[in-house]
Each structure stands twice: as C-alpha cells, then as structure tokens.
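Internal tracking record. Fields below are filled automatically when a chain is submitted to the structure queue. Please do not edit lines marked as system-generated. If the sequence contains nonstandard residues, flag them in the REMARKS field before resubmitting.
Queue: standard
Priority: normal
Entity type: single polypeptide chain
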Amino acid sequence: MAARLLLLVCVAAGLLSAEAQDAYSQLPDVYKKGVDLALEQLNSHAGVKHHFRFFKSVDKSEHDVGFGTRFLYHHFYLKPTRCAKGATISDLQSCPFRNDRPLMDCAVCYKTQSDQLEDSPAPYVHCIHKPRLTQAMTTTRWDHWKTMTYSTGGATIMALSTG
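SYSTEM-GENERATED OUTPUT FOLLOWS
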C-alpha cells in the first residue's frame, strides 16, 4: 500500500514538473515578450543569485485600442532553478526548478504595436519574492495598468466638437 502511494506521489510530481516546463512554450508570443523583459531586468540585478524561469500565469488583461495597438498586463510567477545565474546552457528552459526557494511574483504592463514591444510609454516591470508582496504593491500594479490604458490620448465621439 505504501509503495502504491509513493508511486502515485512520484507520478503526480513528474506531471506537475512537466506541466510547468511547458508553461512558457504555451504562452502567446506577445506575453512571452513581457516575461522575457521581467527576466532580463531580474537577471541584471546584482542581488539576484539564482536563475529564474517562467512558472505560471496568475492573471492576464489586454486592452485593444485599435490599429494593431494593444496594452497588456501580465501577472505571473517565476521560479528559481538549479542552474547558476548567467549559465551558458543552450536551453535554459531545461533547468530543473528548485522547491527550496520562494517564487518571484511579477507583474508587467506594456504597449505593443503589431505585436512588437513599444518603448513609449516605458514598460512597467515589478518583481518581488512572493512572501514579501503587500496589498499596497498589488494596488500600485493595478493603478499603473489603469493609468497606462486610460491615458492613451485617443479621440472619442464624445470628445469631438461640432461647433
């Protein structure tokens, strides 16, 4: 009985690991750009000692303003791996996850034009260890998203003058 239970636990762990390994490849390309931006900024920090990989999406929002322009918000988790930061492995996606370190909770807001990342307005990236995330930080993330999407400056029917 104990052997069956152990086998079941091992199979479940293997399936969860395989699912997480595939999570990044399942993302649409436009969301991969935001994850890559967060990873780039995270890896540039001297205080970050581990290599991180995309683990899973928590929330996604999209605001299409027309003419191929979209504003995207992506809340996701990055998980530390056993590979050293700056490792020159050909496929960093194959680095196994660590379970002895906290997840990195990230939110990115950015503008795309024809699915290409735009520099203006500047993309917003915020990552912090999940246990340290506060409600105030979460509110700030959403406020930034609202500001970015509501200040697009486009003309509307209600704003046009006929006089």
